[in-house]
Design goal:
The complex is a heterodimer of chains A (293) and B (298). In chain A, 74% of the residues lie in helices and 0% in strands. Chain A contains 13 helices and no strands. The longest helix of chain A is centred in the first third of the chain and has 47 residues. Chain A is globular. In chain B, α8 packs across α10. Chain B is globular and about 70 Å long. The longest helix of chain B has 31 residues. By secondary structure, chain B is an all-alpha fold. Chain B has 14 helices and two strands, in the order ααββαααααααααααα. In chain B, strands 1-2 form a two-stranded antiparallel ribbon. Chain B has a domain of 181 residues: MetI-like fold (Orthogonal Bundle), CATH 1.10.3720. In chain B, 43% of the residues are buried. The chains are: A mainly alpha (293), B mainly alpha (298). Chains A and B meet through α1, α3, α4, α5 and α6 of A and α1, α2, α5, α6 and α7 of B.
């Protein structure tokens, strides 16, 4: 605003050069970003290229980078060549049941925690938080002995119960923060209109917390979908094994059919990756119990 | 907030709402924990039958195990190297994900992929990449004339362990970098602007203004990631099964082998109790960091 034409011109020139420099650095960092993206996708791209190779290419020495012919049918053939349909069925049963059971117990807990103060509240929260840190890996021997006693080895139910228990922390935390974000006044108005506590919860709060419930469902579903250690230990029979266990066991064979193995793997991970990236926003806060938002 | 407005309810009033979660936690987290502690003081035969109390004999036999000292050292290296390298790489990565660059969505999506995908499958892909005969790594190294003959990178304990560390970092990066990204995004834009000075001062501005504000995110990421890394079973199991022999085991896979291969439940439980205590220490750290009681009141 100083007025002299000289000053204005100088400032304009300065801005142009700053802009140009910013453009340059933006391009530079975009370039780096591209390489970093490639780095993270690298093992999956590699899998994809193998999945498309014909059976005859797999034992080639030395191997080739790209398939000689692109056999898209491998994504269907995997269902005949490996017991993949069974693994997938088992995984779906375990993950869906874990999700339903997880919601059944964590929705009421999350709601009550968000709305009420009660004796033992801190203790309950501490217990839930601690559960999150103790992965079943540490407790595997205890879990195995317990499941033997309960006759739940080689059963869906055993895996479902363990998966549910160890995912409660994330669910309760996320749900309670969603319920907390619903204005109390809405619930109070419903109460004045004669709704019981249960009716208010069911008709008012539950629908309003739907995004939180969806987020939680996806999280539990994926955690159970990817679970390995417990299933590997408890499910020795292929009829209950999820894909994580079944496919990994196939790599123990002398002649590994990498193409089918990876075609199956990709079918198993792609839908989950898309679901997972849809709840990205809530992951950090849920997994750090809100200590990073 | 609502909590203060209402009077404190009795535990009995809460029970129908939180009872289900409590039941599951007691039955499937606490019971196995107690079972494990008890087993570590029991004499157990190969078939898993309990033959009475055993005092600290299981712990003694664990210390007499010729592979335990190597395993402990490796576990410490595994934990320190993976957690530290992850943090060091995650900071620039989080910065990059916080820039307005072209392809930002692709970048964020790509970084999430190893987090979302089954660890077993990600590691299986690495196992193929490192395969002596059909793997990509050997192919590339040969084409670049770095090596002449294909080498089995997972057969030699040293190179196998190095690869475990690399894959361990690879799968840890997403969580840590997203925690740091969340930390960066919570810094008010005025402060970011203030730190954005031209030239040599930009570095100084970053380390004196931005970095200290990221400290809480760093600590939380490091502690939680330590628990993940310490517990990490699939990466090691899929790549080497702790082998050759016990040369790439950490205490986690070692406990598994003692329990389910050597069928020595007593000794394995005593090691598992040790693992439990390590995690317990991390939890104490986390509770201190997160100030969980105050967070809840917000």
């Amino acid at each position: 605003m100083e007025g002299t034409g000289q000053g204005m011109k100088l400032r304009a020139r300065g801005q142009v050069s700053v802009k140009r420099r910013m453009k340059k650095s933006k391009l530079f960092f975009s370039f780096i970003g591209f390489f970093v993206s490639f780095g993270f996708l690298f093992p999956y791209i590699a899998m994809f290229l193998i999945a498309l190779k014909p059976k005859s290419d797999i034992s080639d020495m030395p191997p080739t980078y790209l398939p000689k012919t692109w056999v898209w049918a491998n994504f269907i053939n995997v269902f005949h060549e490996l017991p993949f349909a069974m693994y997938l069925r088992n995984t779906v049963i375990i993950s869906l049941s874990t999700m339903v059971l997880g919601l059944l117990v964590s929705v009421p807990a999350g709601y009550y925690l968000a709305r009420n103060n009660f004796r033992g509240r801190s203790a309950f929260m501490l217990i839930v938080l601690v559960t999150q840190m103790f992965a079943p890996t540490t407790l595997l021997i205890g879990i195995y002995r317990e499941m033997t006693k309960l006759h739940l080895l080689n059963s869906y139910l055993g895996l479902i119960l363990i998966n549910t228990a160890f995912n409660l922390a994330f669910s309760i935390w996320i749900l309670s923060s969603f319920f907390k974000s619903i204005p109390l006044e809405i619930e109070e108005a419903a109460a004045i209109d004669g709704c019981s506590r249960w009716q208010t919860f069911r008709k008012i709060s539950l629908p309003l917390a739907l995004p939180g419930i969806v987020t939680t469902s996806i999280f539990i579903f994926i955690a159970a979908w990817n679970e390995y250690v417990v299933a590997y230990t408890l499910a020795q029979s292929p009829t209950v094994q999820p894909f994580s266990v079944g496919l990994a066991l196939l790599t123990g064979y002398y002649e590994i059919q990498w193409n089918y193995l990876f075609a199956g793997s990709l079918i198993a991970i792609i839908p989950v990756i898309i679901l997972f990236s849809s709840i990205q926003k809530y992951l950090v806060s849920g997994l750090t119990a809100g200590s990073v938002k | 907030m609502g909590i203060q407005r209402q009077s404190k309810k009795s535990s009995l009033d809460a029970l129908p709402w939180i009872g289900g979660s409590l039941l599951l936690i007691f039955a499937f987290v606490f019971w196995p924990t107690i079972e494990m502690f008890t087993l570590s003081f029991r004499k157990i035969d190969m078939t898993g039958q309990i033959k009475g109390w055993y005092g600290f004999e299981n712990y003694r036999s664990l210390f007499d195990n010729s592979d335990i000292s190597g395993t402990l050292t490796r576990t410490a290296i595994w934990l320190l190297v993976v957690v530290f390298a992850t943090i060091v790489i995650s900071l620039p990565l989080a910065q990059l994900m916080n820039m307005k660059i072209i392809g930002l969505k692709v970048l964020r999506f790509s970084v999430i992929v190893p987090w979302a995908a089954s660890l077993v499958i990600t590691t299986t892909s690495w196992k193929w990449i490192l395969d002596a005969f059909h793997g990509l790594a050997n192919l590339i190294l040969q084409d670049l004339h770095i090596i002449k003959e294909p080498i089995d990178m997972l057969a030699d304990p040293k190179s196998a362990f190095t690869w475990l560390l690399i894959v361990g970092v690879f799968v840890s990066l997403p969580f840590t970098s997203f925690v740091l990204l969340a930390g960066l995004q919570s810094i008010p834009s005025e402060i970011l602007e203030a730190a954005k000075v031209d030239g040599a001062d930009a570095w100084k501005g970053y380390w004196t203004i931005i970095f200290p504000l990221l400290r809480p995110s760093f600590l939380v990421a490091a502690v939680i990631n330590s628990v993940y890394v310490f517990n990490s079973f699939p990466v090691i199991w899929v790549l080497t099964q702790g082998g050759p022999g016990y040369e790439t085991d950490t205490t986690t896979t070692f406990a598994y082998k003692i329990a389910f291969r050597d069928q020595d439940i007593g000794q394995a439980s005593s090691l598992a109790v040790g693992n439990f205590l390590v995690i317990f220490i991390f939890i104490m750290f986390f509770l201190k960091l997160s100030k969980w009681k105050e967070l809840d009141r917000e």
